[in-house]
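Hi all, posting the design record for the shared folder.

TITLE: backbone redesign
STEP: 1 of 1
STRUCTURE INPUT:
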């Protein structure tokens, strides 16, 4: 696949005027080719995908073998789930601290510390005002790569602005008594401002060089959705900035006229799950429409298609206007779910508590109320497991602590904070 350029984006936008009949012919060809590819599968004979329901559009087929409905697998791992605390108000993110305590964001705008034993602290002061209507609020939180030295925290939030709102990132220094944030400043403001309440993204991740990656939604509404393909808009993008908010010189579009220099990749719908693996590769798990949640390997300057290339349909069941499942110049998802899981929060496991899980990707699921485990080998998903299914909780975030445990928060008014540790049970539900 080629790197994105403004010329490529303009060409892609022109393609949206292609007649419906041409789209149908292309889709028919895609289906035929995909069926041939799928027939040449390397799945073992005893492979049984966990998903057996009908997809949202039965005419859509995967672009290559194993792109969806991977073999179901089961952990031979003993674990238990400890409920550290209840009573959190719509928690959105959890970030373990070096001493074993945990930072938790609450959607209405509170940042709290929950102790390792589950005691909920008072709200930390200094957090800017948020617009918590709809899907907005105080969103992700991440420690500085040098937190033990600089005590700096980064967070994303839907920032109220004149004429609407948009996703912003701020940074601040946690006071020694951990009661307030000092030296607070906003280092990034997504543009344009929009009067809406949906699809803000947003996850914050740092690479091995200390650069900050932020995932941004395209705000959902039909009139702004096309901006996911516009280079003068941050909507539907992954952006990359330095910790002080400056633009790195090696960003792909810094010298491209008409392009916002923070942009790293283009064509995303609403990414609320993102993580780096042990090899330094950046992965996002993207909320699709009705069908078509995507696992994408994010590479510099690439276009991931939305809303021109996607699986699934509108929530109404109607086709996505002018969209196809394959188009030259656009990246294919490594994996997709249809029906969707509504992914939120992601973590590649690298700890010692569960050696069998090392290298696996864990993804929270809101809609299906579970923790999804993916085994990824050579850039392809080889197996999928569904954990914690009996708990009936919308999992909003999952992070690994310094102790090797996994920490999760649930999406509800009386949200819970869970800790997954080695235990006696080998069932998918834990204890």
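Okay, here is what came back for every position:
SEQUENCE:
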């Amino acid at each position: 696949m080629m790197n994105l350029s403004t010329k490529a984006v303009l060409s892609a936008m022109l393609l949206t005027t292609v007649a419906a009949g041409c789209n149908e012919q292309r889709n028919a060809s895609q289906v035929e080719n995909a069926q041939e590819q799928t027939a040449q599968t390397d799945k073992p004979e005893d492979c049984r995908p966990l998903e057996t329901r009908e997809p949202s559009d039965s005419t859509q087929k995967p672009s290559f073998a194993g792109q969806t409905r991977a073999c179901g697998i089961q952990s031979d791992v003993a674990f238990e789930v400890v409920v550290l605390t209840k009573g959190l108000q719509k928690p959105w993110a959890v970030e373990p601290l070096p001493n074993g305590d945990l930072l938790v964001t609450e959607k209405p705008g509170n940042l709290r510390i929950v102790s390792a034993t589950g005691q909920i602290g008072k709200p930390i002061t200094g957090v800017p005002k948020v617009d918590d209507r709809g899907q907005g609020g105080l969103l992700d939180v991440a420690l500085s790569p040098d937190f033990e030295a600089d005590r700096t925290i980064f967070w994303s939030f839907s920032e109220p602005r004149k004429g609407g709102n948009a996703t912003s990132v701020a940074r601040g220094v946690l006071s020694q008594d951990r009661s307030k944030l000092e030296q607070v400043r906003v280092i990034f403001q997504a543009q344009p401002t929009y009067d809406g309440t949906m699809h803000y993204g947003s996850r914050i991740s740092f690479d091995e060089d200390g650069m900050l990656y932020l995932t941004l939604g395209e705000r959902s509404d039909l009139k702004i959705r096309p901006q996911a393909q516009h280079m003068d808009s941050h909507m539907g993008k992954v952006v990359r900035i330095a910790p002080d908010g400056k633009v790195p010189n090696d960003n792909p579009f810094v010298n491209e006229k008409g392009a916002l220099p923070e942009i790293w990749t283009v064509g995303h719908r609403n990414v609320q799950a993102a993580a780096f693996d042990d090899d330094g590769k950046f992965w996002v798990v993207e909320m699709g429409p009705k069908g078509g949640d995507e696992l994408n390997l994010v590479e510099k300057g690439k276009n991931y298609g939305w809303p021109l290339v996607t699986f699934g349909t509108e929530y109404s069941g109607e086709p996505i206007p002018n969209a196809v499942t394959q188009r030259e110049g656009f990246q294919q998802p490594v994996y997709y779910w249809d029906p969707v899981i509504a992914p939120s929060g992601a973590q590649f496991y690298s700890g010692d508590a569960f050696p069998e899980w090392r290298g696996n990707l864990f993804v929270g699921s809101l809609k299906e109320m579970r923790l999804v485990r993916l085994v990824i080998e050579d850039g392809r998903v080889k197996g999928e497991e569904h954990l914690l299914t009996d708990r009936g909780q919308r999992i909003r975030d999952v992070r690994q602590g310094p102790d090797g445990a996994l920490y999760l928060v649930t999406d509800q008014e009386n949200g819970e904070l869970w800790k997954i540790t080695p235990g006696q049970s080998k069932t998918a539900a834990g204890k």
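COMMENT: The two ends are 45 Å apart (CA to CA).
Let me know if anyone wants the other runs.
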